[in-house]
Automatic annotation (TrEMBL):
EC number: 2.7.2.3
Keywords, comma-separated and alphabetical: ATP-binding, Cytoplasm, Glycolysis, Kinase, Nucleotide-binding, Transferase
Lineage top rank: taxon: Bacteria
Phylogenetic placement of the source organism: Bacteria, Pseudomonadati, Bacteroidota, Cytophagia, Cytophagales
Catalytic activity: (2R)-3-phosphoglycerate + ATP = (2R)-3-phospho-glyceroyl phosphate + ADP
Family that this chain belongs to: Belongs to the phosphoglycerate kinase family.
Compartments (UniProt record): Cytoplasm
The name this protein goes by in its record: Phosphoglycerate kinase
Length: 395
């Protein structure tokens, strides 16, 4: 696999698949530019070599072609400011405008293409569409790990049209850090799995049972475990058909000598709202009409102690409904515990993309852990042992 460091881009036009799927507010202002910041080293290396960059990305999930809300034109000004280069824009990702601007790019210049997903062919992995995109560059650089698990035209199919297929810095760092966790973890190794559903995490949980010493389970999925063990969960989130699976996970963990740590208390509410009435109850004792939305103080203390003594930490998924400030206390506490273990105990900490990345970045701790992944689903699939099309296409 060719890497950015091993390639000289002098005089080359690099067609780079980036992940600029950033959140925008109602004024189309970027509210979290983590994914853009992550790609800057790759772009800057190419420019420093004397190359030019054609950037292609998706934004959101447009359903019916071009949509103002999902136009990448909203990124032109902030990108120009961040990069210190006046970024050009093509109002299409294929066609004459894109081709004319790309082929006349000079070394040091950057062209941003319009949203790839304005064409349904992108997500379908259409070969003819991929070939049209390929005409815009001399070399293909894939730096979009967040979409590497999709066999889309720009993330995988396009590779066949290039002799030089380059792994960007983001892609390389994601793979290296995931491999460090999977193959070279210093012990004790603790995985913290949160989020809403067991079904979303079952494959990675089962793989981790062969690798971790401790598995902390938090978030909405805990209520399915609690119900399966005979507890009362009120109207909390429940995957009724996954209760048997929850018990199987507990049995497998016991057989493999993995220490499973689950909440011992919950913060519950009488409505799904930040302003709902709240009470703290022991796990398995949530009254009818109430729902668990966060872990309680005793659970926080229990989880913190396990994290504090860990040398390798993988965290994927929040402990509660962290979008509501009143129910973000557990997630914030775990973020602080991971930071403390990293800074004071020398632990290696990998934050597994998605909501976990948002939580740690929003709390201002992104630069105080070892690595924050930009890919939620992609990281999970890679750790589950699946081949990612976007990675395979670089070989």
């Amino acid at each position: 696999m060719k890497t950015v460091d091993s390639y000289n881009f002098a005089g080359k036009r690099a067609l780079i698949r980036v992940d600029f799927n950033v959140p925008l507010n109602e004024k189309f202002e970027i509210t979290d530019d983590t994914r853009i910041q992550a790609t800057l080293p790759t772009i800057r290396k190419i420019l420093a070599d004397g190359g030019s960059c054609v950037l292609m990305s998706h934004l959101g999930r447009p359903k019916d072609g071009p949509t103002e809300k999902y136009s990448l034109k909203h990124l032109i000004n902030p990108l120009s400011v961040i990069l210190g280069v006046s970024v050009k824009f093509a109002d299409d990702c294929i066609g004459e405008s894109a081709y004319d601007q790309a082929t006349t790019l000079q070394p040091g210049e950057i062209l941003l293409l319009e949203n790839l997903r304005f064409y349904k062919q992108e997500e379908k992995g259409d070969v003819a569409f991929a070939e049209k995109l390929s005409k815009l560059g001399d070399v293909w650089v894939n730096d979009a790990f967040g979409t590497a698990h999709r066999a889309h035209a720009s993330t995988a199919v396009i590779g066949q049209f290039f002799e030089d297929r380059i792994c960007g810095y983001v892609m390389q760092a994601e793979i290296d850090n995931a491999q460090r966790i999977l193959e070279h973890a210093e012990r004790p190794f603790t995985a913290i799995m949160g989020g809403a559903k067991i079904s979303d995490k079952i494959l990675i949980i089962e793989r981790l049972l062969d690798k971790v010493d401790n598995l902390i389970i938090g978030g909405g999925m805990t209520y399915t475990f609690t119900k399966a063990l005979g507890g009362q969960i009120g109207k909390s989130l429940l995957e009724a058909d996954k209760q048997e699976l929850a018990l199987e996970i507990l049995e497998k963990a016991k057989a493999k000598g993995v220490n499973i740590i689950m909440p011992v208390d919950n913060v519950c509410a009488d409505a799904f709202s930040n302003d709902a009435n709240r009470q703290i109850v022991a796990t398995g004792q949530i009254p009818d009409g109430w729902e668990g939305l966060d872990i309680g103080p005793a659970s926080i203390a229990l989880f913190e102690e396990v994290v504090r003594t860990s040398k390798t930490i993988l965290w994927n998924g929040p402990m509660g409904v962290f979008e509501f400030p009143n129910f973000a206390i557990g997630t914030d506490a775990i973020a602080k515990a991971v930071v403390k273990a990293t800074e004071e105990n020398g632990a290696f900490s990998l934050i597994g993309g998605g909501d976990s990345a948002s939580a740690i970045n929003n709390a201002g701790y992104g630069d105080r852990v070892s690595y924050v992944s930009t890919g939620g689903g992609a990281l999970l699939e890679y750790m589950e042992g699946k081949e990612l099309p976007g990675v395979a296409a670089l070989a």
